[in-house]
Amino acid sequence: MLRGSAALLRRLAPRVLGGGCGNTTHRRLPPPIAPFLHARFLSAPTTSSSPPSSSSAAGHDEEAEDRELPKISNGDAGALLSISVDRSGLYNPPEHSHESSSDSELVKHIKSIIKFRSGPISIAEYMEEVLTNPQSGFYINRDVFGESGDFITSPEVSQMFGEMIGVWAMCLWEQMGKPAKVNLTELGPGRGTLLADLLRGSAKFFNFTKALSINLVECSPTLQKLQYNTLKCEDEHVDDGKRTVSKLCGAPVCWHASLEQVPSGSPTIIIAHEFYDALPIHQFQKASRGWCEKMVDLAEDSSFRFVLSPHPTPSLIYLTKRCGWASSEELEKIEHIEVCPKAMELTEQIADRISSDGGGALIIDYGKNGIVSDSLQAIRKHKFVDILDDPGSADLSAYVDFASIKHSAEEASDDISVHGPMTQSQFLGSLGINFRVEALLQNCTEEQAESLRTGYWQLVGDGEAPFWEGPEDQTPIGMGTRYLAMAIVNKKQGTPIPFE
Ligand code: SAH
């Protein structure tokens, strides 16, 4: 463990919050975890496990066919379009339709985009609509986290996750020279649990909490409200209007639609936990005529289906960019590639921000340090489902390509350095999560102790839970090696802990 973080850990608030662990499922991981811990757990070694095969995603690739797209009727009794016309502004005549009356608003909307465009849309466009369509995207109108939601994330598993991120942030702030003002920005804060645990844990470090201005980048009005409550926010009237303050630490809190809108000019600490995996990806597949983009189209019966684009698509430019960062051996092996232009752009913005304002960013997500082949998956109510089934009712996410993030950041600025990725297990272990769990276990009820031990294992464990005694197909899988941590910092800050 690091000396700097050891001193901080001793002073973290001793409270046990209960935590959300128990019989809920982590996002991306199959079924529930036992609400109890077998004694064997404490002595069991953690074994490393390989990431789930891409077949664990809904298995749609068989449906993508290497063939020309069917021509799409222009509504004139079977006449086929032979030229491309921009029909987006035209009235769509009430033609014979196979559309199911039970289609949700979002399904109708996505179908209308495909029809008006007279052709399929990219998976990235589909994903963006499904997740963040302002009316009915998956994240927009509901709380998708926890037992009654669709998946559970690390901050919901245990308070220790947010506390450890707090240790990281305070150490970086010290390396930054303890600036009197720092923009603490979280991208996609979910329920706000990570930040609340970070702030509670760091409550005794007055100089740190006094310096904070909190900025939350969140697209969902529902989740913004939840974050407001979790952070115990209150509105205060000040001379030039109103400001929102978190009563957990007295820091002002603001919400933004994107990182670009977060005010610049002060040193910054950016946290992105499970944010990148929700950014829309393009999928490409190797065919006899070269790399083709996989697209979402409508079948004869008006259901969604995958097809391969017969023509080069604009996003090929990002495929070329991504392949330019890969070795020829890496490229030879693959038949599919996922490319995430939004991740590249976001990383460039982060790198620019950090080089101009100072500070650093921490990115934690599930992913790979290299090309991601075929990882897109849909999860509804803690189960993997078909990616094209009832869009908007299931989470869509893809493995994060950490090598692409590293290259994007390094190309964007010479003033930053990129560290990692390292596994979540190494990251939390080096920051001292084992000391934290021991400290918390000193002063808690038996129920809380169970919850703490289970949560600890979920965060740092690897492979199948050794203590599991329930149904085999429900064996919980640890997140210790599937999740990776990467830091991007201004070179002036030196190497951030625990990446030395
Ligand atoms: N970090 C949280 C939540 C992860 S889920 C946790 O670990 O628990 C992804 C979060 O990002 C949600 O809050 C979602 O509403 C938000 N989000 C997803 N795409 C977004 C986008 N394009 N812009 C802003 N917020 C987005």
TrEMBL record:
InterPro entries: NDUFAF7 (IPR003788), NDUFAF7_sf (IPR038375), SAM-dependent_MTases_sf (IPR029063). Residues 44-58 have a biased composition (Low complexity). One of its GO terms (cellular component) is mitochondrion. Residues 44-72 are annotated as: Disordered. It catalyses: L-arginyl-[protein] + 2 S-adenosyl-L-methionine = N(omega),N(omega)'-dimethyl-L-arginyl-[protein] + 2 S-adenosyl-L-homocysteine + 2 H(+). Keywords: Methyltransferase, Mitochondrion, Transferase, Transit peptide. The keyword Glycosyltransferase does not apply. It is found in: Mitochondrion. The keyword Acyltransferase does not apply. Its EC number is 2.1.1.320. GO terms for biological process: methylation; mitochondrial respiratory chain complex I assembly. One of its GO terms (molecular function) is protein-arginine omega-N symmetric methyltransferase activity. Its main location: mitochondrion. Transmembrane segments: none annotated. Belongs to the NDUFAF7 family. Arginine methyltransferase involved in the assembly or stability of mitochondrial NADH:ubiquinone oxidoreductase complex (complex I). Acts by mediating symmetric dimethylation of 'Arg-118' of NDUFS2 after it assembles into the complex I, stabilizing the early intermediate complex. This is Protein arginine methyltransferase NDUFAF7. It comes from Miscanthus lutarioriparius.
